[in-house]
Amino acid sequence: MGYSSELFSKSVPNRMDNEISKNHEYWMNEALVFAEYAESIGEIPIGAVIVKDNKIIGHGWNNPIQSCDPTSHAEINAIRDAARNVNNYRILNSTIYVTFEPCIMCLGAIQQARLSEIIFGAEDHSRMERLNGLDRIKYDTAQSLLYQGGVLSRSCARILSDFFKDKR
Length: 168
Hints:
The protein is an alpha/beta fold. The chain is built from 5 helices and 6 strands; from the N terminus they run E-H-E-E-H-H-E-H-E-E-H. A hairpin with a 2-residue loop joins strand 2 (47-52) and strand 3. Helix 1 (18-40) runs parallel beside helix 5 (153-167). It is globular and about 40 Å long.
């Protein structure tokens, strides 16, 4: 898929392999299920799943309001679930699918968990420190973290925009 060997490598292929594209869409749809659940309990609708060997090993949704925990983002909750399920704080050779571009805190947790790849849906246009600007953050250069945005971006953005429209 044309990944470079840089620390953070963005894949923006002109033609995605159909099988890989459909696989990413399948797992993003699974993450959307958890985003819908977050919305149903009054949380910002962001969901995440962690996939290894074509199986979900962890899942999560935004839950900072109900848990009174500002770190209870979908990505963090999915990492915690996966770590418990694999019985290890390192979640090697795994991909996280998240419906919204991860924040800096979540990126740090993803890196610490040693996930291999981030696939996200909607981009966060409101933050100055976006995923594309991670050259400002120093990580262990021995680990390569691949990422790709825009998978089912319309569906992922729509659930967020509808949520905030209903709040107004």
